[in-house]
Predict the structure.
Amino acid sequence: MADSLIFFLNSFVTLFSVLDPFGAAAIFLALTQGDSAGRRQAQAMRAVRSSMIILLFFALAGEMIFSIFGISVQALMVAGGLILIHLAFKMLEGKSPSSKGSGPEREEAEFKDDIAIIPMAIPMLAGPAAITSVVVFANRASSGVEFFSLLLAIGAVLGITYQALKQSETIAALLGETGLRIMVRIMGLILISMGVEFVLSAVKIYFT
């Protein structure tokens, strides 16, 4: 039971850091300026629902998909760790990982009526780092209970993300620019530790 709780906490903290609900809320607010509260809530629900489908799909079938392309779990763990470390360094510089969409994607989103799928769900929420993290944790789950813990972690993080998107105006006002930057740096420290742990675990497994 204790191992499952630790597995849940590891999964939850990593995914929370990668998805960065509060940073995503700030971008979501910028992309939905002028929208009514009802429309903003509908967009938030669609973005989170789409992200849930993507992450659950890769949790269930990600390992099989990567094996088809001949990618080993160890290689995936190293790649995932490097992605997390790369994002973490950006966060330590005060940049939100939610800004990982490209410039053209963000500019295009400003002129779209529906920003829920692109860029909010992909690549800002269910991006490469989130997908890789889910696949790695799914592979590391040693029992059905731990795998269920991963699914709970995905649901919990996305539930918080939905609330953050829905209350984006309130959160931005409460935290302010300084608060958001502090939050990003704290999450960056956690994320870089998780990324290093991914790489070290992969190297250990490979050589043993």
Summary: The chain has one domain: 2-207.
